[in-house]
Amino acid sequence: MVQTTQAKSATATGTTSNRLIEAGLDIFGECGYTGATTRMIADQGGVNLAAIPYHFGGKEGLYGAVIKHIITTVRGQLDPILAEIEKRVAQSTPAPEEAQELLEKFLGRLVDFIVGSKEAPRFSRIILREQMSPSNAYDNIYTGLMQPILNMVAMLLAAITGTETEPDRETRLRAFIFIGQIMAFRFARETLIRNLGLEGYSSGETAEIHRIVLEQTRAALFGLKNLPGKK
Length: 231
Known about the structure:
Layout: H1 5-35, H2 38-45, H3 51-56, H4 59-91, H5 96-114, H6 120-132, H7 138-161, H8 169-187, H9 189-196, H10 203-225
């Protein structure tokens, strides 16, 4: 079938945009927003420099598209389990045992993506830079990724410990710690590779980390539920 001029144009546009976003992931991750130049990104993507203002309006627009790509990809992995838990919670507050099962399932999914996915190394460099020196784009990262993850873990912790339906400050701090134990495997990856001689991370290593994170989670929950005033 002969492709129409309009269809060819749409295909070319999509290809060029995608190549620039992929190149932006690497260059922004390595150099940061300030250090990255449009020339570097265009060269990396193998496209004409004029393609950046044409498709994205400039460097800032391309950076925003890269952030959106990160959020969309991560949510594509997490949304099924988030939706499952939200549907269950909408029916009634789960009992502590069921809430713990849901929490373990959710944290396990985080491990599989943050530690084991091929996208995580490229995404984490940009997210870590935004954590250390947030730009205007961090609001999108927070509302699109960090906030729903933190809220979900805090809500499940509240159900597990029998605190108020709306998680209090202490519960949210504890939720952050549960998430942090997973994030450390990505942001401190090089330390662990050197200390244990890991490949960083093979499927077997990811499975091992998955198991240990859940064991650590169960131990922490056991201790938390037996703290004075938590019974």
